[in-house]
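seq/struct pair 1
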Amino acid sequence: MVMESINPATEEVLDVFEELTDQQLETALEASRQGHEAWARASFSHRRQVLEQAGRLLRQEADAHARMITREMGKPVGEARGEVEKCAWACDYYAEQGERFLAPEPVDTDASRSYVRYAPLGPVLAVMPWNFPFWQVFRAAAPTLMAGNAMLLKHASNVPACAAAIEGILAEAGLPQGVFQNLPIGSGRVEGVINDPRVRAVTLTGSETAGRKVAAAAGSALKKTVLELGGSDPFLVLEDADLDEAARLAATARNINSGQSCIAAKRFIVVDTVADAFVERLRARLAELPVGDPTAPETRIGPQARGDLRDTLHRQVRDSVKGGARLLLGGEIPGGKGFFYPPTLLDGVTEEMPVAREETFGPVAPVLRVPDEEAAVALANHSRYGLGGAVWSGDRERAEAVGQRLDVGCVFINGMVKSDPRLPFGGVKASGYGRELGQHGIREFTNIQSVWIG
């Protein structure tokens, strides 16, 4: 089997990558075991130096890496550069904080001395998606490597060049052989890797379907998992919100990465008394977003990453309009090459429609109108997803109280949901479990070991 790197803006095949043979995969697994044994004994000081160097290398070649991301999955190049810089930030953050996060914690017991230590767990398989091809990997790798674990990367099959580049960066930074390896394999071989006794845990960012499969395989093998899955994040606009600022951030929150983000705002739940005014402002903001060549610095909306993804998005829009939603902007596939889809605004959406019930992975903004705050919270929580949510109100205490009632993993008040190395990140319900980032993230793949000394 081969993996093709295809430019979604032109549909041109950029490169072809060969899948690992069974023997090559076996060699990689054994190298991971041996690499982990050495890396687990490395001092925090040494691990810190490697991560700091990785951060420097990312910054030095940020423009080249950004162009690669843009060519391979279509992200506007300015956003791609920001993604690379955020990866460098994550490396720096865990280099600085990792030892403190993993320091032994004394506990008073009947022993002369007792404490909890955070020991490396072993090789971790990372199954990662295409939409943030550098960031998704580094936000998992930086804490996992700083904790003394090895990592095996099974990246999405449409970003093979990015996967190879990440492996090269970490090797150049000084990571010992075998500690981080790219596994160019198909999804059908993931279960076999999970079952291998040398692999101790699995982290996955991806679809709900992929999460269920990986969780089932890991559960059968009794291995720890962290799952960051899909989202249908609510964006609540209450009657006392700053509508200009809410609409400005709403347009950004929905359309970052051309709408292809698990934590993008996907359901705009607006109180009736301000709905008309908010929709008018949001429509104006969306209409201003330039769509086109993702390598052009002025472009805000590039292509969707694959043709089948665009087809799914268009089906969700079309079926929702048939069900009674009002199409106010976009909603048509443009002619010509590339998997482009315009910013699209739907009003009068109800929770039974596909754009509200399903996860929409593209630049589509559905507006759902509610009579009051209580109805807004109920509608926000009436979803199988629970990744993030935003609440907009002129009264921050009120907004915070509303936010605490949302059944999600992260709440943002008068802002847009985003990941931050300093805060734990993850969801509940069908959005997954476990946490990445922050102090909680680095401890996910450690052996939390109690030590009692008589």
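seq/struct pair 2
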Amino acid sequence: MIMSYPAVPVLSADVPAVSAPSSDVPAVPAAPCDVLVIGGGLVGLAAAWRAARRGLRTAVVDPAPASTAAASHAAAGMLAPVSEVTYTEEPLLRLGLASLERWPAFAAELSADSGHDLDYRTDGTLEVAFGSDDLAALDELAGFMGRLGLPVERLTGRECRRLEPMLAPAVRGGLLAPGDAWVDPRRVTRALLAALERRGVTMVPARAAGLERSGETVVGVRLAPAGGSPDGRPPSPGEPPGEPSGELSGEPPHGGVILAERVILAAGAWSGAARWLPPEVVPPVRPVKGQIMRLRSPEPILRHCVRGSVHGSYVYLVPRGDGELVLGATQEELGFDTRVTAGGLWELLRDARELVPGVTELELADVVAGLRPGTPDNLPLIGPTVLPGLSLATGHHRGGVLLTPLTTALLMDEAGDHEELAALCSPLRFQEQR
């Protein structure tokens, strides 16, 4: 079962020379972990699962893992490195293609370990153009994809409608990326929680408040006392504003220390707001808001993931096997603002209706705004920091779901001969500049 640490006022004798915590923060637990993950979103839970599969003693610190505050709760789950390629992000394309190759095995192992279906689908992405300017931009993109050797097929408007009869007659043409896939991130996080429970991973319903160090080496994490914010930062993943930390899952640890051989910070958009980190390792991560709408019909109205441009405005429609249709997504630089706005939803419906007129007849099931963790170069931060014992797994921006298998492989040294990929997303690229 998933356990919470009991409060025990002693430090493990196995790790010497650790500075003692203050008297009002009792120490926990009885023995150090091999891996301690801060953050219970999709990336953090997946990292913990891969560590546990290797037989490592693993714990996750998060007030409410896989909650509605996590970016994965809002994400559409597109695994689409080909159809999402842009002119300035070829390094990100290499990461995405490498991770997409790992998704079939990742999904199969997680489904077997958890007993959950992930709604993992491999029917490809159809990218369509609405107007003449949209079609011209799509033609340029097709040429760029061709120069990169990407597997895409150019289609006329009639050929697009043959694949997807619900498309509007005004659709001028499209591109089919048959290798793209998608998955339901909410199902994935539920599966990860079930798999972690089966493997006895400890879930600690609290916030991190500081690093425990022996010299320069990180040997653990100090927890925030329940009911208080240690540094005034925005709420951690899974922690609703104003909700006391630790009161969401059984008896909480009221502060304390968890010792660990390795600490992984995977707190998504909140990673850059962790003021308890030493300045030299604070990741340059910012929140990027995205608004998402979920509609529902008795049967799926689309077979492919459909992405489209409507007079230069982009929208995507991602079908689920149960009839849900996900519309997204806006990109807004508004800090930690998770308000759902009428304007954002109107833009999504306006553009989706131009491409698939039938969407306005569907039932409105859910609206949500999530926060993507953005970085200055749009590449993730995965791997060791300048502090021994501390690694990062954050900054995935809009590719968190896609990059999860590669992220866990890099963290667990399971990526094989991929030094170039590890270098692309190494946190040291920013920390050495500082």
